[in-house]
Amino acid sequence: MSFSASSWARAGLGLSLALSTLAACTSDQPKPVLPPAAPPAVNSESRDYAAYTKLVWSDEFDTGSLDLTKWGFDLGAGGWGNNELQTYTNAPENVTTTASGTLVIKAIRPASNSPAYTSARLLTKGKQTFVFGRIDVRAKIPKGKGIWPAIWMLGADIDQNNWPKCGEIDIMELRGSKPKELISTMHFANSAGTREFRTTTKVQATDLSDDFHVYSVVRGQDQIRMFLDGQQYLTFSKSDVGSAPYPFNNPFFMILNIAVGGDFDGNPDASTTFPQQMEVDYVRHYQYQ
Q1: pLDDT digits (tens, 9 = 90+) for 20-62
Q2: What does the pLDDT look like over 65-83, one tens digit per residue?
Q3: I need a labelling partner for 133 at 20 to 30 A (CA). Which of 87, 93, 235, 242 fits?
Q4: CA neighbor of 81 nearest in space, from 190, 157, 154
Q5: Is the separation of the CB atoms in 131 and 251 below 8 Å?
Q6: In terms of Cα–Cα distance, which of 30, 29, 32, 57 is closest to 42?
Q7: pTM value?
Q8: Running DSSP on this structure, what letter comes out for residue 211?
Q9: How would you label 246-267 residue by residue, b for 16+ Cβ within 10 Å and e otherwise?
Q10: DSSP class of 91
Q11: Active-site residue numbers?
Q12: Which residues are CB-contacts of 219 (< 8 A; sequence separation ≥ 6)?
């Protein structure tokens, strides 16, 4: 095939146009759009206890009756996994609020002995969950052999990831026979799904049942700290679970209860008096500004 001069000219012009068109297309090529960075979780950074000043949720128990938009009940008997003896109810003799603004959870021994003991267990499941920030519970707790008051939390995904995979945060537990010993425990599952835990006992000079105290947990990303009356006594972090999943960055709900008997402190004996009650002045959730 042969080309004339005019053919070469036309060919040159076509090549020039093609190159300029290619250059234009290349320069107009859109740059890849990166997704925006995910914002950090609210209050994920751990800060000093006093930095948490913004009240974001609370119950002061001062409305004349229990606020059922904030609290529900666990009901029934069956031992609750620990061979406990109480039957949980929502009856006024087991749970009430006072005119002065105090929640009272009461464990009693009915005169009929049927059931042997009744008590109450309140929880915010399905109503309010908590992630990062500081939770304060000001409470006066009971004592006596076989009395088991607790302020604690469970992972809100417990119905999808059964215990202990969901995680459990025991802010305060007390063996009623040892009323000077504040116990705080973190429960979680190892990679095989078996329960593991880390616990600490803070011994006081006087019975915790003698007066109101503020029991606090501060949660940040990969870290949990416990406080009694503003004084830190426990730090738990992601490194404490080793290679196990760390569930404690997830939403949790709050639980308040008194159990009777069971594996934790044994059963009541002749020295145990009834009724026994836990008084809760408030539950407050703070975040920093």
Answers
A1: 443 444 445 555 565 555 556 789 999 999 999 999 999 999 9
A2: 999 999 999 999 999 999 9
A3: 242
A4: 154
A5: yes
A6: 57
A7: 0.86
A8: S
A9: ebbbeebbbbbbbbbbbebbee
A10: -
A11: 168, 173
A12: 130, 131, 132, 133, 134, 135, 248
